[in-house]
Each structure stands twice: as structure tokens, then as C-alpha cells.
């Protein structure tokens, strides 16, 4: 097990591009690490420079946001056996603590289950996700030019964190509030304002660069706001060199159809799994 330094992180970011979509979440983590965004991650590999497995794990579980409290790991591996060997090394995983492997390749899940059993650790699949990527800005629709009828685009600020938190499906707590506040303060976001200047729809970016927290207030739906926000955010991210992708839970047909209509594509043979250890 080796921990990567700043120069190795830049090399690894470039190398991971070859393995999209399997590597996209880890790539997103490294993308922000290499641009000095706030983080609580250390990055481990099995060997260097010819690595097979790369793991992003919390540096400190004492950080009181979702990333720290939920002990979230991001993993990319070209070799299931190699991944198992690394996870079994002392210090990589605390098998007695709640741990969330967020976005692990579905083909690794049977091995993860077997390893958890060998450690006498309860485990379960939390969610199975489509991974949808946008590679070409030309696939996005043209938005109407500014007019009195156009939505009023803006950005969220810290004062909006509580509104976003209470409407987020994983929000509603002080811990999630801290995560939302971090997303707003440090990563791109867009919102649509009503006539009084209050946000009625918004989209944010997670620390691993995935689009997320897309939401429209119920009374303002069916106006195309989500379509506008995804388009504007995607164009902005592509212009800044970001990867543009999202996770959509299996069964969420409305979101799937929205992103598909905007040119996002998936590898039909690939799914990402949220895999939990020591589930509460």
C-alpha cells in the first residue's frame, strides 16, 4: 500500500481517463484534489507507477460532514483479486466501523460480500446506479436568448444552504447541512430565482465532481427548469475542464430520461454500487 503525493496525484488523474466510466468517480476526486479544493482524503494505490487499484478514503473520520461521518470510500480497480489484497491490508479499512463504498463497480460486489463475511462484518447493497457521462457539449440543447420570459439564472450562496439541505433526499441533518454548505462555498452551482429573488430550482456539484442535488420546488415544476440547469452547469463545467457526469439510481426513470435527452450516455454493461459495511 502506497499513499500518493501531489506529483503522483497529477499523474494518476491523467492515467484514469483511459478507464472511463469505471474510473470516473475516483477521477473526479483527484480532479478536485489537484486543484486544491478542500478535502479530507488520502489516496492509496497497490503499487506505483503501474497501479491496478486506487482507493480514496477519509483521512480523518472526525470531520463532521457526510463524507467524514459516513466514512465514504471511492474505489477504482482493474483487478478484483488485487483490490481484495489491498482491502485486506492493515489500515486500509476499519472492518468494525460503518463504511460506505460509494460507486464501486458491480462486478466487484460478490468479492466484497465474501470479504465482509470473512471479517464477520455485516454488509449490504444500498443502491445500484446508472453512470451517465456527457462527452460532447454539442449534444446539449441551445437555450433561448435572455428575455423577460427566460428563467433568472444565478448562483446559490451560504444563506441558501438550509433550503437545499431540507429538500435534499439525503439531507435534513446538521451533518448534511455542513456538506451542502461546503458544496456551495467551494464548487460550481446554479439556481433559478423567482421574482422576489429566492431560489426555486438548483443544481450543485459533489466533491467527486458528479452533478447532484438537482431540485425544483413542487409549485415551480413542469417549466423546464431542471433542463435549463443541467444544460447551463454542463456547459460551464466543460469550459473549465471538469468531467461531466452523474449517478442515477436504477428505477428513477424521470431523471434517466432527462439526462438521456440532454446527450448523457452510459455503458449499458456497467453499474456502480453503493456498498455498506456495518450498516446502522
Automatic annotation (TrEMBL):
Q: What is its EC number?
A: 2.3.1.-
Keyword list, A-Z: Acyltransferase, Transferase
A molecular function GO annotation: glycine N-acyltransferase activity
If you read the UniProt record, what top EC class would you report for this enzyme, in one word?
A: transferase
SUPFAM superfamilies the record matches: Acyl-CoA N-acyltransferases (Nat)
Q: Which Pfam families match?
A: FR47 (PF08445), Gly_acyl_tr_N (PF06021)
Domain N-acetyltransferase residue range list:
151-280
**A cellular component term, taken from the record's GO annotations:** mitochondrion
User: Has UniProt tagged this entry with the keyword DNA repair?
Assistant: no
Q: Which family does it belong to?
A: Belongs to the glycine N-acyltransferase family.
Listed name of the protein: Glycine N-acyltransferase-like protein
Taxonomic lineage from the root: Eukaryota, Metazoa, Chordata, Craniata, Vertebrata
